[in-house]
Amino acid sequence: MSLMSEVGQKAFNLGVPLGVHLDVTYRCNERCVHCYLDHDDRGEMTTAEIKDALDQLAEAGVFFLTFSGGEVFMRRDFLELVEYARRLMFCVKIKTNAVMIREKEARRLRELNVDTIQISLYSHRPEVHDAITKLPHSWERSVNAIRFLREQGLRVTIANVLMRVNLSDHYGTQKLAAELGVHYTLDPTITPMMDGSTSVLALRIPGEELPEIFRNPALVPNQEEFCAPPKPPTEDDLESYSCSAGHSFCYISPYGDIFPCVQFPLPTGNLRRQKFLDIWNFSPQLQEVRSIRTKDLTVCSSCSHAASCTRCPGLAYMEGSMRGPSTADCEKSFYRTGVPTANMLRQGLSKPGSAFGHKMPLVQIQALALPA
Amino acid sequence: MPENRKYIARSSAIAARALAGEMMIMNPADSTFFTLNEVATAIFQAADGRTPLHEIVRERICEQYDVDPEEAQADAEQFVADLSSHGVLLVSSQPLSSETAGEPTP
User: What single DSSP character describes residue A264?
Assistant: First the structure.
C-alpha cells in the first residue's frame, strides 16, 4: 500500500474529510453538450463566504482541495480564493477548461504552488472539441493554455470525457497529451443533469464499445488482471464500504450545499446555515451513507463482481436507491470481464440494460429546506 | 553555522495538514508526499523562522518526550537536513520571516 493510500485509509477510518471538491460557480463560458449543470447563477457564495468555508475546511482537517465549476475563472475573485487557500496550506487542484488562462494566469498559478490543473479536452481535432464545447476556438485556447502552464512547470492533466461523438479520438488525444508533456485520463461516464433530465445519457458510448477501451494497453496496463473473471467476495469484501464519498470526501456547491460527492446529489446541509463540522459530524444523511457496507446492498451483495466492481453509490442513488445497483457500473463490470452481474441476471438480461432507460424518477440537486 | 544558531521555517510552497497529530506534507514542485511522526510534527509546527532549532528541541521535544537531549538534537539536525533538501523547510543562521500564514491546522 502506498503512503498516500495509507493516509487515505487512515482518514477514512477516522472519519476525517481529507478531500473536498468545491465548485465555486456553475457559470461557464462553454456549453458542452454532455454537461450536467445549469449554468445560471442562483446565488453563489461570496468571496467572504468562500473564505470562511475554507477556514472551516482547514480546521476540519481537509488537505486536498479541488476547485472546480462551471468554469472557475468565470469568478473574478478566483485567484484571490486560490491564494487564500494556499495560505491555509491546502494541496490545491484545479479543474478548468483553461480558455481564460494566458501567460499571466499561468505564472500566478505557479507562484501559488498549485498542485495540479486538470483541463477538459475532448479531441485532438479542434473541430470535434469545439463542436462539443459550442465555443469557437476553444480547442486552440485550451491547448495554448496547456503550453503556458507547462512553460511554468505546472503539472497538467488532460481529462478526456468519452462519448459517442468523440469515441474514435481517444488515441489521438492521448498522443497529443504526450506531445504536450501532460498526463491523460479518460472517463466514459456521462452523468444525468442536475434538473433530473436524462437526455444527455444518449451521448454515452454504447457498452459494446467499452471492451476496446479496456483493451487499450496505454490506458489499462494490467489488462490480464483488469479483465479477469471476478473473484468471489470474501467476508472482508462484504464488510467493506463503497468509496470515500461521505467518509473522507465531500462536495460543496457554489451555493454552500454539501453532498457526499459531486456525483452523489444527496443534500446533507448548507454552509450558510450550519458549520461545516456540524454537517460533517451530525448530518443524518451522511451518517446513513457511512452506514452502508457491501453486505447491505440490495442486489450487489449477491453479485460475483461485489469485490471488484466500481459501483458508484451516487449513480445508484440517482437510479433510485443508494443501496441499489448502478447500471453504468454493471455495464463496465460485464464488458470488462464478460461475466454477467447480479443486476443483469435478476432482470433476465444477457447484456446490461440501459441505465435510466426505464424513466426512473431522478433525484435533483437542491438546497436543503432548513430553517434560517 | 553554529548548531545553536540554526533557524528553520516552513516553505510557503508546500501543502501541509495534520491528520490525527501527524503531519501530511505535499511538495507540489516534485509531487513528493511525506508524513511526519509525532515528534517530527512537533518540530515542523514549531518552525516559525524565529525560534532557534536547539530551543525547539529543548522546549518541544526534550520537555515533552523522554529523550536524551544530545540524541534529540542530532536527530532533529538530520530531520531538518532531510526536509530542507526537499524544499520543505528553509534553514538559516539568521531569523527567517515565516512564509506561511500560520501553523497548519488542525
Answer: B
Query: What pTM does this model have?
Result: 0.91
Task: Give me the residues of chain B with pLDDT under 70, please.
Answer: 1-4, 98-106
At A189 the pLDDT is: 81
Arithmetic mean of pLDDT, A204-222: 80
- The number of C-alpha atoms within 13 Å of A148 and in the hemisphere containing its C-beta is 21
**Residue A6: all three cell numbers together:** 495509507
Q: How far apart are CA A126 and CA A131, in angstroms?
A: 8
Q: Which three cell numbers stand for residue A137?
A: 476556438
Take residue A58 and report the three cell numbers written for it.
482547514
Spatial contact of B40 and B23, defined as CB atoms under 8 Å apart:
yes
Question: Residue A48's Cα: distance from chain center in Å?
Answer: 26
* CA–CA distance, A46 with A255 (Å, rounded to integer): 9
Q: Which residues of B touch A (CB under 8 A)?
A: 12-20, 24, 26, 28-29, 31, 33, 35, 100-101, 104-106
Nearest to B87 by CA among B7, B1, B27, B31: B27
Furthest CA-CA distance within chain A: 58
The interface predicted TM-score of the complex, written ipTM, equals 0.89
Segment among A188-202, A257-271, B66-80 with least mean pLDDT: A188-202
Contact of A91 with chain B, judged by CB distance below 8 Å, is answered with yes
B15 interaction partners in chain A (CB closer than 8 Å): 63, 86, 89-92, 113, 115
Q: Is B15 helix (H, G, I), strand (E, B) or coil?
A: strand
Chain A positions in Cβ-Cβ contact with residue B104 (cut-off 8 Å): 58, 89
Band the pLDDT of A353: cuts 50, 70, 90: low
Task: Please name the member of A7, A18, A59 whose beta carbon is closest to the beta carbon of B106.
Answer: A59
**Grid coordinates standing for A86?**
494556499
A63–B24 C-beta distance less than 8 A: yes
User: How many cross-chain Cβ pairs, A to B, lie less than 8 Å apart?
Assistant: 69
For cell 493516509, the residue is A7
pLDDT in tens, A305-334: 999 999 999 999 988 999 999 988 998 899
